[in-house]
Amino acid sequence: MSWLSDFEAELTARAVRPAVRERLLAELADHIACEQDAAPALAATRLGEPRALAGQYADELASDDARHGAWRVFAALCAAAAALVLSQVTLGRFVGYPGFDRGFSVALSLPAILAMLVGPQVALVGGALAAWRAIRRRREAALPAAEIALVRSRAQVGLGAGMVTMAGLALYTANFIGVAPAWWLALSGTLVGAATLALVWARSGLARSSGTVALVAGPPGDIFDDITPLRRLRGHPLALCLGSALTAGAVVTLAEWHAERSLSEGLQRGIFEALALSIGFAALGRTVGARR
Amino acid sequence: MRAEALKGHLDGLILATLAEDPAHGYAIAQTLRERSDGAFDLPEGTLYPALHRLERAGLVRSVWSTAAGRRRRVYSLTRSGDGALRESRREWQLFAAAVEAVLT
Questions:
Q1: Interface-testing mutation among A6, A31, A46, A49, with chain B (most B C-beta atoms within 10 A)
Q2: Is CATH 3.30.70 the right assignment for the domain spanning A69-221?
Q3: B43–A53: do the CB atoms touch at under 8 Å?
Q4: In what order do the strands lie in the sheet with B60-67?
Q5: What is the total count of domains within chain B?
């Protein structure tokens, strides 16, 4: 087998994308031809081992793809957050929030509201942790395979939660057909459509990043590497979960108490927030690198 | 000089090579070898992952051309690449001065 066919086989084994593979092979074919013109005895020998070179290329490509995938997801989640905020602010300011039981069906409005309350928080945690890791490690040419997997899984969690949030907003909007004015329904529907397109675009980037096989050894790292003040809690996931739940619960209680002028309303929402965060930690903590 | 010793400097060396004229991979490898009097005798294949990485980072751009009936990818520096080269030179001067101060 020639150097080039060995190299192609190694790139294929690492699942490097066909378009990238083709470009690299064309460049190296030109390189070998130039060498043959200048020094036939040296042709291909200066290029290095096909397996090592293909491996280096695949490891760097997988790392870059994972970082770009994470940034794309974060950008799309920002668009989804803007859509949610704009829809709810215009509803509250110009229309007034209809009660959850005033729409088409409570069976639609309750899951929609739940998705719009929980989804954004999960999306924020997953998307922000993925983007932050990608930024922190942007200068590393090749990341360990386990770290690439962690960045991807965080981004997937964020993306999934973003999709759930937009599904919730779509359901919420549809539920108020006939109750809310047509202009708001059109605005909210358009915002959901635009944000969903952004999420689909991010999904395609993330899917692309999952193809190439990276083999660099090393630990994935965890949330304690990303947020250094939390390091003293490493090895104590229960303390991290309780601390986060109590802090978030207290913040929501105070905010709702202030907004609704009702301590009992604030406490209800604060307890819901703390419980939701604890359940989220138990369900997704390992996936986002918050516990082992 | 072993390839290992060039790690961390290869990107800057490539940018410096492209600062004068656009070039394809083989020409870049030749320039590096000639300018270093053969000291930079790295496996030339490693240039390509570096070139692609620099392109993904927006520091170089590339276009296809044809030479002797073959397709050839020609690379040139972008404005960001020019800035990165200046930064790379500055870092190297600081590093070299510090090493020299310790070794001599």
A1: A31
A2: no
A3: yes
A4: B23-24, B70-77, B60-67
A5: 1
